[in-house]
Amino acid sequence: MTALARGQVWRVQLATKSRAVVIVESDAALDALPGTAVCMMVDETRGAPDTVVTIPVTDPVRGAAVAVDLTALTDKRLAAGELLGTLDTEAMDRISAALRVTLDLT
């Protein structure tokens, strides 16, 4: 299995549909606490507006990462999916800012 890392985008099966998610957990936490990863859902409907808690992404998937839609997924669930790629630094900086606002860490 590919080592999990912050910023990776995976397509995983969740309940009845496939969803794109981006790993938002720090690499240090992923190493220290293996087995799960905190992920942010990506809305691929293109219906989510660009706000302080939604971050438009275009590569490796088109949509918007939604900071209020977090979940923890097992490494087995991620490995059963497909690694689509990794978000660029700019997108991850915006995701970090959105998480700080969402979680009141400003």
UniProtKB/TrEMBL annotation:
Domain of life, per the record? Bacteria
Which Pfam families does the UniProt record give?
A: PemK_toxin (PF02452)
Query: SUPFAM superfamilies given for it?
Result: Cell growth inhibitor/plasmid maintenance toxic component
Keywords on this record?
Toxin-antitoxin system
Q: Which InterPro entries match?
A: PemK-like, Plasmid_toxin/cell-grow_inhib
Keyword Cytoplasm in record? no
Which Gene3D superfamilies does this entry report, sorted A to Z? 2.30.30.110
For this chain, the family text in UniProt reads: Belongs to the PemK/MazF family.
Recorded protein name is Growth inhibitor PemK
Which organism does this sequence originate in? Streptomyces tremellae
Q: What is the lineage of its organism?
A: Bacteria, Bacillati, Actinomycetota, Actinomycetes, Kitasatosporales
